[in-house]
C-alpha cells in the first residue's frame, strides 16, 4: 500500500451546440457542433466579425441559447441556480483572443454546489461539482517553424466550464467521471463530445498527500487534454512523478504543466496563477442576468431523460443485464433505437431481450465494421423486429436471418422483400427433408457406421450436409430429428 493518497479535480471545457457564437451572430465552426469528417472546414478567419475580432467600439450581446444550455447542464448536475449572474473580464493575456482578455463567469457561475454519481466496479461514488459557468473560447494557434499562425474562427464560440471538487482519488475514477459527463452532455444535446475536433477538453488538477492527512498537497494543473487517453495517461504519470519527488525529499511546486503525448511525460509551462493574477471585474458591456424560477422550471421540463435515469428504467422495464444496459444506453440514439424496437416487439410478440441481443450483437458488429453510428443505420427499428418475427415463426433460420440483416444494412430493403426475392424461406416440409436425409445417409455410409458404433457426435456432420444441400434453408431441428429417426431404424 502506498504511503500517499491522490487527490484529483477535473475542469472540463465543452463547446456548446449553438448556431452562433457567444457574443455575436457569427456562425459556429462545424467542429464545435459535431460536424463530421466529411464536412469541409471553413477557411481560416472566415467566420469572424468586428465583435469576435475585438475591434474598438464593437459591443457584445449574450447568446440566450448558450445561457439556457448551461442552465440545463447545471440542473442535470444537481446544481443550485442563482437568482442573478453576470459576466466578468478575465484580464489574463490571451494571445489567441484579439481583445487581449476573455469574457468569463468565474465569479458568478450559473450553477454551484452540484454533484454527479459515477460507478467504479460495483461502488457508487458521488463527485461534487463546484460550479458550472459560461465563457468564450479562444482562437487556434498553429506554430510553423519560428512563426505562429492564428485562426479566429473558434474565437467567441460558447464554452461551458464544469469544475469538480477535488473528490477523485484514482485514474479509474477520473475515467468514469469523464465518460459519464460526456455521456450526460451528449444526451442533453449540449455538446458533441467530439474530443478529436476540440469540442471537449479536460484539465486535471493533481496533488498527493500522506495517507490520513486532511491537508491538500501542492496542486499541479495539467492543461488542454483533448483525448481520454491523454487525460488518463497524464494523470497516471503525474501521480507517479509527485510520489517519486516526495520519496526523494524534493518539493512539489504549484504549477501548470503540459502533456507530451509522444514522450508520455508532463512538462512545466508556467507557475500556477492565483485569482488575483486574472484581475476579474464585472464586464461593463453586458447586463446582469436575472434568472427567475419560471424560466428555470421551463428549462427543467425541457430536459431529456438522463443516462442514469434511463439505465434504472431499462433494468426495471425490460429486465436486461447490466452489460446490455451499459451498451444500449451509451448514447441517446442507441437507447432510442432499442426502445423503438422494443415497442414494435410488443405488437409482433418479440421480447425486448431478443431485440437487445440482436442490436448489441449482429447490428453493432455491422456498424463497427462500417465505421458508422446507429443514427446512420438504414434499418428502421420496426424492420429489425419484423426480421426477428420471421425467425420466431420458423419462416427463416438463424444463418438466413444473419444474411438478411446484412442485406438490409447495405440496401435498406425490408426483410420480407429480401426473403422472397432471394428465395430464402426456411424448408420445413417433412417429406422433402426426409428425402434429403435419405440422400445424405446413402452418401456417407462410413459416417452412418460411426454413429451406430456409438459416436453420436457425427450427427452434427450429417445435419450440416442437409443444411449444405438446402443452402442453409432447412429447419435444422427437424433435419436432426429425421436423421436420428432414420439412423435408429436402419
Name the features.
490 residues; alpha+beta; three-stranded antiparallel sheet; Arc Repressor Mutant, subunit A
Quick structural gist:
The protein has 490 residues and is an alpha+beta fold. The protein is 41% helix and 19% strand.
Description:
This protein has 490 residues and is an alpha+beta fold. It folds into 3 domains: 4-300, no CATH class; 305-422, no CATH class; 430-489, Arc Repressor Mutant, subunit A. The protein is 41% helix and 19% strand. It has helices at 64-76, 171-187, 228-247, 275-278, 293-302, 307-318, 322-328, 332-348, 352-370, 381-392, 398-411, 415-422, 430-443, 445-452, 459-469, 476-489; strands at residues 4-15, 84-85, 88-90, 102-104, 111-120, 123-136, 140-144, 147-151, 158-164, 200-210, 220-225, 255-260, 265-271, 281-282, 289-290. Strand 12 and strand 13 form a beta hairpin. The protein is elongated and about 95 Å long.
Amino acid at each position: 500500500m502506498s504511503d500517499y493518497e491522490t487527490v484529483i479535480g477535473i475542469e472540463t471545457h465543452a463547446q456548446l451546440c449553438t448556431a452562433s457564437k457567444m457574443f455575436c451572430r457569427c456562425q459556429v465552426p462545424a467542429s464545435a457542433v459535431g460536424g463530421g469528417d466529411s464536412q469541409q472546414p471553413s477557411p481560416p478567419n472566415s467566420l469572424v466579425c468586428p465583435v469576435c475580432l475585438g475591434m474598438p467600439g464593437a459591443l457584445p450581446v449574450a447568446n440566450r441559447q448558450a445561457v439556457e444550455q448551461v442552465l440545463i447542464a447545471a440542473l442535470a448536475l444537481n446544481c443550485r441556480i442563482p437568482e442573478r449572474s453576470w459576466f466578468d473580464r478575465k484580464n489574463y493575456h490571451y494571445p489567441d483572443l484579439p481583445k487581449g482578455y476573455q469574457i468569463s463567469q468565474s465569479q458568478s457561475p450559473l450553477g454551484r454546489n452540484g454533484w454527479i454519481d459515477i460507478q467504479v466496479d460495483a461502488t457508487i461514488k458521488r463527485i461534487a461539482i463546484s460550479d458550472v459557468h459560461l465563457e468564450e473560447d479562444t482562437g487556434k494557434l498553429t506554430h510553423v517553424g519560428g512563426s505562429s499562425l492564428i485562426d479566429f474562427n473558434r474565437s467567441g464560440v460558447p464554452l461551458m466550464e464544469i469544475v469538480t471538487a477535488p473528490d477523485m482519488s484514482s485514474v479509474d475514477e477520473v475515467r468514469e467521471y469523464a465518460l459519464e459527463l460526456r455521456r450526460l452532455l451528449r444526451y442533453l444535446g449540449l455538446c458533441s463530445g467530439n474530443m478529436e475536433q476540440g469540442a471537449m477538453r479536460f484539465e486535471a488538477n493533481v496533488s498527493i498527500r500522506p495517507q490520513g492527512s486532511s491537508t491538500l498537497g501542492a496542486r499541479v494543473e495539467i492543461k488542454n487534454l483533448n483525448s481520454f487517453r491523454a487525460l488518463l495517461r497524464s494523470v497516471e504519470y503525474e501521480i507517479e512523478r509527485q510520489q517519486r519527488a516526495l520519496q526523494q525529499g524534493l518539493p512539489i511546486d504549484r504549477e501548470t504543466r503540459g502533456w507530451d503525448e509522444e514522450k508520455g511525460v508532463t512538462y512545466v509551462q508556467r507557475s500556477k496563477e492565483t485569482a488575483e493574477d486574472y484581475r476579474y471585474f464585472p464586464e461593463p458591456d453586458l447586463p446582469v442576468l436575472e434568472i427567475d424560477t419560471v424560466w428555470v422550471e421551463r428549462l427543467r421540463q425541457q430536459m431529456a431523460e438522463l443516462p442514469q435515469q434511463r439505465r434504472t428504467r431499462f433494468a426495471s422495464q425490460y429486465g436486461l443485464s447490466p452489460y446490455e444496459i451499459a451498451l444500449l444506453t451509451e448514447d441517446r440514439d442507441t437507447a432510442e433505437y432499442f426502445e423503438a424496437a422494443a415497442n414494435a416487439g410488443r405488437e409482433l410478440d418479440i421480447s425486448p431481450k431478443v431485440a437487445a441481443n440482436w442490436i448489441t450483437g449482429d447490428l453493432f458488429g455491422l456498424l463497427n465494421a462500417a465505421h458508422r453510428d446507429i443514427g446512420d443505420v438504414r434499418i428502421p427499428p420496426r424492420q429489425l423486429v419484423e426480421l426477428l418475427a420471421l425467425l420466431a415463426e420458423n419462416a427463416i433460420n438463424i444463418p438466413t436471418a444473419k444474411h438478411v440483416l446484412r442485406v438490409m444494412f447495405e440496401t435498406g430493403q425490408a426483410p420480407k422483400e429480401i426473403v422472397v426475392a432471394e428465395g430464402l424461406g426456411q424448408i420445413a416440409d417433412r417429406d422433402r427433408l426426409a428425402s434429403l436425409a435419405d440422400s445424405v445417409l446413402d452418401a456417407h455410409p462410413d459416417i452412418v457406421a460411426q454413429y451406430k458404433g456409438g459416436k453420436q457426435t457425427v450427427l452434427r456432420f450429417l445435419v450440416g450436409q442437409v443444411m449444405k444441400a438446402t443452402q442453409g434453408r432447412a429447419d435444422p431441428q427437424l433435419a436432426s430429428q429425421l436423421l436420428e429417426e432414420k439412423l435408429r431404424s436402419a
